[in-house]
Design brief:
Length: 339
């Protein structure tokens, strides 16, 4: 436990958390929406500092980040908690644990310096703050990132994009890259199904771009919620216009989870149509996820369409990129450490 950053004290021992756009007003003895930041006698504490619920060595493609050191390993770390309540959450057992387990904060002590040393020992090029929402364990993530920089290890966020501008600006010098979920294109959907505000997520995406953090975007295509062409077109056009054609878009297949177990698996045809929409909107790199063996996993040159990186699941079968360029036409391929 550590005193939280980004909050203000109020009358009667109340506090207001300023870490994310919820800006929770928290009375003494209570927690914010995330379930892991608690007001104790007028001081806001992070209950998950150095309390890891998960730590694994993953392929970076699992994040998914396809344009950051392809084929490399990423040391992945998470605590319990989240500032969203997605009805279709695929990590609900840990993201919603503080709410579903009577406020219990599960995890084991894993200091930031130990995380970095483990990443170094396993020859990981990056450390990924992932699985749940890194914003809610901000102090832990920042400590990890500051240690990682000294070892020459990059830090990446896999995030829902629900963070206020000041905390993101403070974290930015230590962030190599991020994959941000853009979960849909409807404010009511974000409010009712996700538990957030679409405009705030879009603002975060724009700020990531402004801060020159390498950015990839993921959309989980949930049947009945995020599977119509108008939604997919709007997301694709936003990425192209506001984030740039070089921003990879990952269109991921939904499998029934959590409170949406009655929904079907996303049909392959919808994923393929979504990928077409992305390319038609002018994006250079569009991928289909959770569809092992599909051509949509591969990276192709946006000019001559040559196969650059062939994937099968999270494995790379071949990488033909030379000096970050297409070996056929010489086009510069966007990303970090591609070859």
């Amino acid at each position: 436990m550590i005193e939280a950053q980004f909050y203000e004290k109020m009358a009667n021992n109340q506090v207001r958390c300023l870490l994310c756009p919820h800006n929770c007003k928290i009375t003494e003895g209570k927690r914010g929406i995330c379930g892991v930041r608690e007001n104790r006698q007028g001081i806001l504490y992070s209950l998950v500092f150095e309390q890891a619920i998960a730590s694994h060595v993953d392929p970076i493609e699992k994040k998914p980040l396809f344009h950051v050191y392809p084929g490399s390993q990423s040391f992945s770390i998470a605590t319990v908690g989240c500032n969203f309540k997605c009805r279709f959450c695929q990590n609900c057992d840990i993201s919603q644990a503080p709410h579903n387990k009577g406020g219990q904060i599960a995890g084991q002590s894993l200091p930031a310096e130990t995380v970095v040393n483990m990443a170094d020992r396993y020859s990981c090029k990056t450390i990924a703050c992932t699985y749940t929402e890194p914003t809610i364990y901000y102090e832990y993530a920042l400590d990890i990132a500051q240690h990682a920089v000294k070892k020459g290890i990059g830090v990446i966020f896999v995030s829902n994009g629900y963070i206020n501008a000041e905390p993101l600006r403070k974290m930015a010098p230590y962030l190599l890259a991020a994959n941000i979920d853009l979960k849909g294109w409807d404010q009511e959907f974000y409010r009712r199904v996700v538990g957030g505000d679409l405009k705030k997520v879009l603002d975060t995406l724009l700020l990531y771009k402004k801060l020159n953090i390498w950015l990839e975007v993921t959309t989980l295509v949930v049947p009945t919620y995020v599977d119509n062409e108008d939604t997919l077109w709007e997301i694709a056009k936003f990425i192209r216009k506001e984030l740039g054609a070089e921003t990879p878009w990952h269109i991921s297949r939904f499998h029934p989870q959590y409170l949406c177990r009655d929904l079907p698996v996303t049909p392959i045809e919808i994923l393929r149509r979504a990928r077409e929409i992305g390319f038609d909107a002018g994006l250079r790199y569009v991928y289909s996820g959770n569809v092992q063996g599909d051509a949509g996993e591969n990276t192709y040159c946006y000019l001559c369409h040559a196969l650059l990186i062939e994937r099968y699941g999270f494995s790379i079968l071949q990488n033909n990129i030379k000096n970050d360029k297409c070996p056929v036409c010489g086009a510069a391929i966007d990303g970090i450490g591609l070859s």
